[in-house]
Amino acid sequence: MSRPVRDARRRIEDEHLAIVEGIDHCAQQVADPWDTARTTDSETVTTRLRSALEATGLLEQLPLVLADVVAAMGYELRAQPVPAPPYVVVTSRGPLLRATIDPGRLVVRFDAFEVVRDADPEQPPAYRRRDGIRLEVALE
Fold first, then answer.
1. Omega within 30 of 0 (cis) for the link into 85
2. Helix or strand or coil: residue 74?
3. How confident is the model over 55-74, as a mean pLDDT?
4. Number of domains in the chain
5. Burial, 5: exposed, middle or buried (Cβ in 10 Å; 0-12, 13-18, 19+)?
6. What sequence ranges are listed for the domain DUF7988 (predicted)?
7. What is the span of the domain harbouring residue 74?
8. Contact 39, 45 (CB under 8 A)
9. 40: phi > 0 → left, psi -120 to 50 → alpha, else beta; which?
10. Residues 1-39: pLDDT tens digits?
11. pLDDT tens-digit profile of 121-137?
12. Contact present, 110 and 94 (Cβ < 8 Å)
């Protein structure tokens, strides 16, 4: 893990824990109505997660997290991030933050759901709620 990636991860863990916990809470709201431990409806996962993030104000805060993380890494953003692509994307796994900085593309993933693939390739992938949030930071 490179130093900028470590700095980014540390900044999120030290300064934005409430955001991570909020994402976790929103993801739990998405999974609570399921009658099993998983669903194959990725669009519903994405739509409900986005709605929960919007309702709690977290979606609006994610660009601020991105800007803070980039600054903590010692870089500057080329433009002010907004809570929409390409900076913030809500996926079936969880929110994704992206920014292009001098050394490459910064990608921060807050994985709240994991993809479970069936051995039968004809079966659609399923989405299962993770135990907490898995934070992934990469510089590509």
1. no
2. coil
3. 96
4. 1
5. middle
6. 7-139
7. 3-139
8. yes
9. alpha
10. 578 899 999 999 999 999 999 999 999 999 999 988 899
11. 888 899 999 999 999 99
12. yes
> If we measure between CA atoms, which residue out of 70, 33, 35 comes closest to residue 51?
33
In a 10 Å sphere around its CB, with 0-12 CB exposed, 13-18 middle and 19+ buried, how is residue 70 labelled? buried
Q: How far is CA 104 from CA 5, 12, 41, 48, 107, in A?
A: 12, 19, 33, 31, 10
| Helix 58-72, helix 17-31: angle, nearest 10 | 140
Interior angle at CA 77, CA 92 and CA 73, nearest 5:
85
Residues 125, 115: Cα–Cα separation, whole Å: 6
